């Protein structure tokens, strides 16, 4: 009966988003309160439980997500993203154009949120397609595959960062494992899959052609790569130090402090403020204005994350999480596969990768302590499932269709299938890593 009530709570969330067209944050709040009543939580405790869940999750994530948005905005506005794309194009040339676009998406996609990366880089893909007289879909799919993978797999993107916090995983290790899975996944869903799309016709609107900055206004390639990838260097580097130093060492507390994801992102933004900002002729007011715009862009993402925290807390406070864990233990299915399946189903129903991932986290969280499952791989399994088969209820589906100006049929054959390949290949990568971790 408890499982049915949980499913009813999730159904309420799905219906509010899909049928009632409610904002996901409002839908999470309503479904959280509904779940509290359905699961027997005393009425005078429901509001407190909702507030506590929102506060705990946001407390772990606000710095990471906000700083990530600021860094991404500066990387875009300074021309660093354009420099990275141009540099890689020169190295790979026309013969390996799809690989250049995939690597561009991976590098630039780390600091940029998906929608920003899409709007910024897709016009560059159109320019490349026009220059070499090739299909825009053929050029664009590898780029979008890389952006999707970074969005679903790699912190500091909101969903994986939130999952790391919910499962008490290690952000550096998750990022390291995520890269190991991301690279072959991008290769399969990007350049290799794109070979089947060479003849797909697309007529991108001239409105979406890239407005490139003059070469003289762009930062150097070394500066661009260093600043964009600095969070990766710091997270992976400090994690490696943490794993190889004795807890009794006098350096352990200092390394632990520097390794905190919030501190890593703060340091990265402060360094970027100089390397891509002040050092490139921006004044402090211009930089701070960019950061203000960046925080506005991700305000709703923060609220959705908070709403997911509320639902998870309701499940915890009602004791339902333990009941779910006990029930799932009797299922003859690998927990990583189970997490992927649940996420994929919610993703197909709701359309939002972030909502799908965070909703699954509330259901599956007890498995971390009750079953022998690596929390870092659980983050990646859910991240892969959250990208499953994007279709009509996903904003990304329509952005792709309109920007590339292709038919619904071709959108499904290219975009939707690419997302499905990412989801399946990501799960395969997680399961292979699970053998060795």
From TrEMBL:
Keyword terms, alphabetized: Cell membrane, Membrane, Transmembrane, Transmembrane helix, Transport
Subcellular location(s) per record: Cell membrane
One GO CC term, this protein: plasma membrane
Membrane topology: Multi-pass membrane protein
Residue intervals passing through the bilayer: 30-47, 54-76, 96-122, 134-154, 174-194, 225-245, 251-277, 298-316, 336-365, 377-400, 412-436
Lineage per the UniProt record: Bacteria, Pseudomonadati, Bacteroidota, Cytophagia, Cytophagales
Protein name as annotated: Gnt-I system high-affinity gluconate transporter
Family statement: Belongs to the GntP permease family.
Pfam family for this entry, one: GntP_permease
